[in-house]
Amino acid sequence: MNIKIYGTGCPKCKTLAANVAAALAEEGIAPEVEKVTDIDAIVARGILSTPALEIDGEIVASGRVLSPREVCQIINPEAAQKTTSTPRRRTSALRQIAGVSLVAFALVGLAWPFLRGNTEKQSILETVPQSRTNATVVYYFHGTQRCMTCNKIEEIARSAVEERFTEELNAGRLRVESINVDDPANEHFIRDFQLTARTIVIAKGKDYQRLDKTWQLVHDEDAFRRYVQENTAAMLAMGVSR
Question: Per-residue pLDDT tens for 57-86?
Fold first, then answer.
């Protein structure tokens, strides 16, 4: 198992490191944990915000501090199934209360858009005209500070799409867009697509596919081009979720 913690040494980064150490001790494993503090290396990995945690090449969290229990559940999903010592009756009662609370929360959630009078910005997936959401969009999300690899990802991805999908691009059924998520106006994309790193997302209506292997494959250009093209073709073939 390979674990990396990305951060510049702030208190949150140190807390994440301590929580990872606690989780590893609880699980009884001792893999090497690498701490990446160099800002250029952090940007080069496509990290959106720190602290960030990478396990076996996958960014599993960015911009927040995972608890030891959350880290355990990522390392060992079976940990989430562990039973607690809470008595059965008490657990049942708590579940009933939680169920009622969830129903109430759901009802409030449904009513909230009407109560607030649409004064807040809605998700981009809800506000774009239907004529535009019928199109498939290949997004590349990046930050203001860009490295050579970041530019290479955008260049190859755009080339891969233009090479294979000329007809769809000319007909307006497919678009390629480059988005700077450091721009406050674009922050909603992080929520919309649950972004943890600068990456490619292929979206159509409310359906989307996040290409999380982007940074792993970019140095194998042929494999990366196939990765982008195959996922783009799959999204083009899908119907539109309304």
Answer: 888 887 778 888 888 888 887 755 553 444
Half-sphere exposure in the Cβ direction for 79 (13 Å, CA): 15
pLDDT band at 133 (very low <50, low <70, confident <90, very high): low
Least confident segment among 65-79, 113-127, 145-159: 113-127
Q: What is the pLDDT of residue 28?
A: 86
72 tagged catalytic:
no
The active-site residue out of 13, 72, 147, 150 is: 13
Task: Tell which of 81, 116, 138 closes a domain.
Answer: 81
Does residue 146 sit within a domain? yes
Per-residue pLDDT reduced to its tens digit, 162-189: 999 999 999 999 999 999 988 889 989 9
Q: Assess whether 217 and 142 both reside in one domain.
A: yes
Helices (H), the chain: 11-27, 39-44, 68-75, 88-115, 124-127, 130-133, 148-164, 166-170, 188-192, 214-217, 221-236
Q: Summarize the confidence of residues 94-115 as an average pLDDT.
A: 49
Last residue of a domain, one of 23, 57, 81: 81
Residues with Cβ < 8 Å from 95, sequence gap 6 or more?
A: none
Verify that 131 and 216 share a domain, yes or no.
Answer: yes
Give a yes or no: residue 219 inside a domain.
yes
For residue 183, being part of any structural domain is answered with: yes
Number of structural domains the chain divides into: 2
State the DSSP code for 62.
Answer: E
Q: Collect all residues with Cβ–Cβ distance below 8 Å to 71 and sequence separation of at least 6.
A: 19, 20, 22, 23, 24, 53
Is residue 110 one of the residues assigned to a domain? no
